[in-house]
Design a protein that fits this description.
- With 454 residues, the chain is of the alpha/beta class.
- It contains four helices and 32 strands.
- The strands form six sheets. Strands 6, 7, 8, 9, 10, 11, 12, 16, 18, 21, 24, 25, 27 and 29 form a 14-stranded parallel sheet that branches.
- A hairpin with a 2-residue loop joins strand 13 and strand 14.
């Protein structure tokens, strides 16, 4: 009887599956915890290594820019800003100015940062790390960066000859982007709430908030003023003191010289006198070697229309054009591209020549002009699609929209002005140094520059 009851109990127990999941989870708990531990540890190592790499990148650039006897002090000071202090918390920072450069030679600057982080749950799966500090198992992490001292190409240059305290400044909280462009101000630079997506912001004076890095630099001389020698004497323009000016009343524009349709310009210089007002879209046909349109004592008012160089139409190559604003100061003259319509703005689409005296120059204000030169709403009204140099040395340029490359041109834009105000979505396309060379334009450079090479 007792034996029979025992047998029946064992049969019921064997058939009973309750608690089976708990047993299985017990067996699976160890590998599950191990997987979670490894995932957590690896994420933590990646985060620390990423921080180390950012610090090493910034420190190596700082050493290369310093390019002096205390380059190592400069590098360690920058690394400390990222929380990595040499000799503290088992952190070691090694700095050298004799590192091998990928292009050859051993004149590059290297910064390596190494440190330890304690092992946490990864020990559950038997990981022992690669360090033991005071009996605590540790994982060693490291990063390396190499930079080369080199002049830095500038695509936004504020000459600030007017003495304005900030050659580059933002209004409000713009959301625009300079796409990694490096800038230079011969006075100060001030960006509030947004660094404008600048790479390096060079400035002679105070330099706050602009760019991923702010670096002091000596003032740059105007690299393009000498091009004014290519402007012919105004006495040869044929304008004879006659400069028709436009007037605007409400939505109606009168006066000036009306332009529309396809206009063919020869190689060399062509003068237009006074204000030029588009009454329809304009396409400029010109040789690929380039035409020079000199507007004397007048503006180019797109008036809501398109002003463009003709695209390539094989076998005919694309047209190339440089617009020069020249004339005299005063008299109420405006020497700039404008759009005085109250409706949708026009489009300025200019591709410059790639060779000759005006190679790479799209828009050029005569540096002798100091009045009527300011540009408002650049990139917005009108829209700017411009390749090459926009040179307005005494102008305040209010950049409100995004400037793109011309339809038929390279991805290259260099802007030179007295000062820049950036508002709203103001920004420029990502300038490619190689494409600037293809466009025939030599970019300005900041002396205290550097670039990462590893």
């Amino acid at each position: 009887m007792v034996l029979s009851c025992a047998v029946n109990s064992l049969r019921r127990l064997r058939a009973d599956e309750r608690g089976a999941a708990s047993i299985m989870m017990g067996f699976l708990m160890i590998p599950l915890v191990g997987m979670l531990a490894v995932g957590f540890e690896v994420s933590n190592w990646y985060r620390i290594t990423r921080s180390m790499q950012n610090a090493a990148d910034a420190a190596s650039l700082a050493a290369a820019i310093n390019n002096g006897a205390n380059y190592d002090v400069e590098a360690r000071a920058v690394a400390a800003l990222y929380g990595f202090v040499n000799g503290a918390n088992n952190v070691t920072i090694s700095v050298s100015n004799t590192a091998a450069c990928p292009s050859g030679g051993n004149t590059c600057y290297s910064v390596s940062i190494s440190g330890y982080t304690p092992l946490l749950l990864s020990q559950v799966v038997g990981f022992q790390g690669n360090g033991n500090i005071n009996g605590s198992l540790q994982k060693q992490l490291s990063s390396l960066a190499v930079a080369n001292a080199a002049p830095q190409n500038i695509c936004m240059l504020a000459l600030a000859s007017s003495g304005v305290p900030q050659g580059i400044r933002t209004n409000g909280a713009p959301t625009g982007s300079m796409n990694g462009c490096d800038s230079m101000s011969n006075t100060g630079a001030q960006c509030n709430g947004h660094n404008l997506g600048l790479g390096i912001s060079f400035a002679v004076g105070s330099n706050n908030g602009c760019g991923g890095q702010q670096i002091h630099n000596s003032a740059l001389t105007d690299p393009y003023a000498s091009l004014a020698s290519n402007i012919p004497a105004l006495s040869s323009s044929g304008c004879a003191g006659n400069f028709p000016q436009e007037t605007t009343q409400g939505n109606k524009t009168t006066g000036g010289t009306a332009r529309s349709g396809t206009i063919t310009l020869p190689a060399g210089n062509t003068f237009w006198c006074g204000d030029q007002v588009l009454t329809g879209d304009v396409t400029i046909n010109a040789p690929a070697s380039g035409a020079v349109l000199i507007i004397e004592n007048g503006q180019l008012d797109l008036n809501g229309h398109v002003f463009q160089t003709a695209p390539a139409n094989p076998p005919i190559p694309a047209a190339a054009l440089t617009i020069v604003f020249s004339g005299t100061n005063g008299g109420g003259y405006i020497h700039a591209p404008t759009d005085n319509t109250n409706g949708p703005g026009g489009v300025l689409d200019i591709t410059p020549p790639t060779s000759g005296p005006w190679a790479g120059v799209a828009i050029y204000q005569d540096p002798s002009l100091t009045t009527g030169v300011d540009i408002s709403s650049a990139g917005n009204s009108p829209t700017w699609n411009v390749t090459g140099l926009v040179y307005t040395p005494h102008a305040t340029v209010d950049l409100k929209g995004a400037i793109n490359k011309s339809t038929g041109g390279s991805q290259c834009l260099v802007m030179v002005a007295d000062n820049f105000q950036i508002s709203g979505t103001g920004g420029i396309l990502k300038t490619d140094i190689g494409q600037c060379k293809s466009a025939g334009l030599t970019m300005p450079t900041a002396k205290n520059g550097a670039m990462l090479v590893l």
